[in-house]
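Case study B.
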Amino acid sequence: MTQDELKQAVAAAAIAYVVDGEIIGVGTGSTANFFIDELARIKHRIKGAVASSEATAARLRGHGITVFDLNDVAAIAVYVDGADEITPAGAMIKGGGAALTREKIVASVAARFVCIADGSKLVDTLGRFPLPVEVLPMARAAVMRKLTALGGQPKLRLKAGSDAGFITDNGGEIIDVAGLSISDPVALEREINQIPGVIAVGLFALRGADVCLLGEGDGVRTLTF
Ligand code: 5RP
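Model:
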């Protein structure tokens, strides 16, 4: 199976976790896009969705799915999203698609986090994928120095085909931190959260996944945490 077929398979499997009559939290990225397309088939069964990015909101609306502002929603039954890396304990690196802050907020409201990923995302130790950190632009250099002191090699994410920094939906910039071997994701998430100027770090360990649907050559494997 190709990577896209594996993503498609886990996206289809995630439909089993959708709670009828409820609002669904929806992540961002190529795997989440497959999920949105699957969700469209059963849109009559849900009240609507909360999106983790402008791109996801546009795709949901394109399918005729009602998109709610998080401020108008008291509860989210389930949040479905991809990951850049996930451990056998359910801790993740996210933010390859630059939507980490809203993803973290929506996930924090959801009763259940269902991660959907192709099997290549499962790792023993997080950190081979550079850790995304969203920052206020005026704090960029100061935060980079702190991340270097933590042992990482921070690099500003650039807008494709340009020398300018990539700007997120929130007006932030993204620093990608290479060279970290993250043995204690909860401790590192707390530590980076404390750096002034950090909007969010792409470590999802304090609130990790509850379930991971992992696409493998012989089918979808379900990990529960
Ligand atoms: C976006 C994310 C994505 O979930 C992550 O980058 C995985 O993306 P894809 O499904 O395209 O592999 O965190 O901010």
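The two ends are 26 Å apart (CA to CA). The remaining cases will be described in the next quarterly update.
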